[in-house]
Amino acid sequence: MIPVDEAFARIMAQKIELPVAEVSLEEAVGKILREPIYADRDFPPYHRVTMDGIAIRYESYLAGEDTFRVEGMQLAGAPAQTLTHKDECLEVMTGAILPKNTDTVIRYEDVSIIERRGKRYAHILAAPKMRLQNVHQQGSDRKATDLLIPEGTLLSPAEIAVAATVGKASLKVTQAPRVAIISTGDELVKVTQTPLPHQIRKSNSYMLQAAMREQNVLADVFHLIDDKSLLLDELQQKFKKYQVLVLSGGVSKGKADFIPEVLQELGVEQVFHEVAQRPGKPFWFGKQAAGPVVFALPGNPVSTFVCYYKYIRLWLRAILGAAPAWNLQAHLTTEITFNPKLTYFLPVKVFISATGWRAQPVPIGGSGDFAGLLAADGFLELPPDQIKFSPGDTFPFIGFRS
Ligand code: AMP
Ligand code: MG
After folding, report:
1. What is the topology classification, in CATH, of domain 48-136?
2. Rounded mean pLDDT of 188-214?
3. Which of 13, 14, 112, 355 is most buried, by CB atoms within 10 Å?
4. pTM of the full predicted structure?
5. Where do the CATH 3.90.105.10 domains begin and end in the chain?
């Protein structure tokens, strides 16, 4: 049995190289960028009008002009017009290029438009404060050729907008690994089936698949019964196709818990078996020399859940090339006593307060009570070298809701 930090370090040390894939912009959100993105033009690319109103020469206003004849209209999407008389103006709309010979925009709210003998005039009500007022100046945000998004960035909608504006219809991203989720157990039946009294519907594989989908990793799901020779055959097949195997069930001390021996017979080298934690102690982890990385998780749903969020999620992030996730800490709200020398993953609900995040323990009936998780937002990681945990103390928080 090894401590949680050691298990974590050994998992993170398993690297797999993932190739680059080109995906359309529509599919890129949540993926890891594998190319730098540069500005193809200035940001903004032209002096952009930011208010509907009129464009004038500031000098004409300074020279005493306060009523400007309207020469015409500059709409967004039209090439720049030219103001022909310096004491006149052009009406301009938000998003339009600033007309030539003008340098200042006065919004409609600060002028009154007068129609006289078929001509339009704009009379200034509120003095313009400076040249280039209400103009988003060309290149003021970024210059052409500037690095906008570095390689390795996790693409959020903000990066998608920037990629679109520089003309990237597709992006190079890390290709997700090929992952198989395999639940094991004779008692498990399909979600569409009516279980007999001694059976249950499998839920872990759906949980794992859903959790991975949130990271843009689309896993295939399988179920195998507790039959040693069948497990040997089937797992060997899976090794050919998948880079990562996540198993649930069959790793404890039961008479039908064949997974560790089967994996070792198939040449998967055990990196560890059993972690000093609750829940999830029977966790087995290994790697086959030229084959997959294998996470064999205990089948109790809360154990599977904790092991995914504490280890696999962060490992997947790392191999995909994303920056490490934020380390969140939360204050415990009530005293907790936990005797065993194990790291305790305490289910909690979190609240934001003036002093930071507060974590309220959620009552849960052990590692089989996954309905108990419905009231939780995540787990507080309580260290093994302590028995009493006091209100107000902070501990790492592992969340599973966004
Ligand atoms: P095991 O790790 O195989 O000893 O299973 C521990 C407990 O978790 C047993 O009560 C199983 O029925 C349950 N379990 C195992 N796999 C799953 C699964 N895929 N979905 C829901 N419960 C499971
Ligand atoms: Mg089992």
Report:
1. Molybdopterin biosynthesis moeA protein; domain 3 (2.170.190)
2. 97
3. 14
4. 0.87
5. 21-43+140-174
